[in-house]
Design goal:
This protein is 45% helix and 21% strand. It is globular and about 35 Å long. By secondary structure, the chain is of the alpha+beta class. It starts with a helix and ends with a helix. The protein has a four-stranded mixed β-sheet, with helices on both faces. The chain has five helices and four strands. Helix 2 crosses helix 5.
């Protein structure tokens, strides 16, 4: 269960699992990543969106690509089931 501080940021339970997974890899906020409704990583340069299911959201994807960032989606179910594995899959581009 995420702490109240996470809920005040507007994050979901699934997004909190990705947040925890990022910290577990040694990444620190805001130096290595930041959260603003999705995750922006500095290395590799990418955006990670946690979405209810794998659905097409071309606007968000194109926004990331236009910013020069790789874009990956993680489903909420995948993040809740195993946040670390979901993060590794997204970073690996699979």
């Amino acid at each position: 269960m995420p702490p109240d501080s996470w809920k005040r940021r507007g994050g979901s339970d699934a997004e909190y699992e990705i947040y925890r997974a990022l910290w577990s890899t040694g990444r620190k906020e805001p130096q290595d990543f930041f959260y603003n409704g999705r995750f922006t990583l500095t290395s590799p340069r990418m955006l990670i969106d946690v979405v209810p299911r794998f659905e097409s959201d071309n606007v968000r994807q194109l926004t990331g690509i236009a910013s020069g960032l790789r874009y990956e989606r993680v489903s909420e179910a995948e993040a809740l089931s195993n946040g670390r594995a979901a993060l590794q899959r997204a970073i690996g581009g699979r």
